[in-house]
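Proteins fold reproducibly. Next comes a concrete instance:

***
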Amino acid sequence: SLSYPLKCTLEKLECHFTWDLGCNKNELVHHYNLLGYIQQTLGFNTEALKYLHKAESVMQGAKEAGVWLQVNKANLAWVYFFMGEMDKSKGYLEEVERLQGMHPAPPGCALHPEVSGENGWTLVKFNKSKKRQAIYYFKMALKSEPERKEWHKGLAIAMSKDLNDLMTVRKGRLWLGNPLSCLRRLSDMIPIVSK
């Protein structure tokens, strides 16, 4: 077939399609929600709705779907609000409230850890100037899920965004604080993988 030589040539390229990125539902949902937000801020409400509905369809059947839908439905409520469709916006708001009742935040936490973690990852990836907020949300997620690798990884990344956060002076001594201990804890949790 004529497509075989072309495919062999394409496989030699360096791009997203050849980097073996893998694909998991968490990342797809995160990216679709973020793309929905970006499209709406650019004024493309119809495109925003398409991405947000794609995120919703990816979530179907996932065990965390009820929690993930809280963020997604809140995004939909905002897009419909900006479009002037107040009844649809209010309907999505009611769905968010229902989902929050079904999947409440653990005691002592303002948000469900999935929502806190999603917020943290969005801030780390999208708005580097809000890293302190990202740190706060990852710490909040870790408060109720202290063994969750994803939250430790996010916290380590957020804390390492600025070298000044890694090295501070306390009482005249260089102090390498939480970021390094966070990285050590994360490395202890992740098994060594060889290629």
Remarks:
- The chain has two domains: 25-102, 113-189.
- The first strand starts at residue 167 and ends at 170.
- Residues 168-172 have pLDDT under 50 and may be disordered.
- The beta strands are 167-170, 173-176.
